[in-house]
Amino acid sequence: MSLFxxxxxxxxxxxxxxxxxxxxxxxxxxxTIHEQISRSKEVGYTTTLKxxxxxxxxxxxxxxxxxxxxxxxxxxxxxxDTQTKLFDRFVENTFGNSVSDLVMHxxxxxEPSAEELQEIKAFLARxxxx
Length: 130
Prior knowledge:
With 130 residues, the chain is mostly helical. The chain is built from seven helices and two strands.
């Protein structure tokens, strides 16, 4: 796969919402995807259709013939795989691949509770023991 294709494969926010529907309900038709997304936000059917077609063009979904003239769509990659790739790209682009900068930024944006601090300390201890 070329470098260009890797860049194109990144889903937009709206496309990610479609992928979330597919991960939970796949395979499904554009109608089903649209019905699920419409529960939380107002969006036109043709907009949903166009976004699904973009995902197909990006190679992030695949389709097979469905009932009647419709198609059934499913995500090519798992939710975990896609989230990992997006997160890795975010850390690389935003924090220069510095995990410590990411963690310090995240911890500096709020006041973690005593319970959250304990969870963080336990997590760090597990990392140190591995």
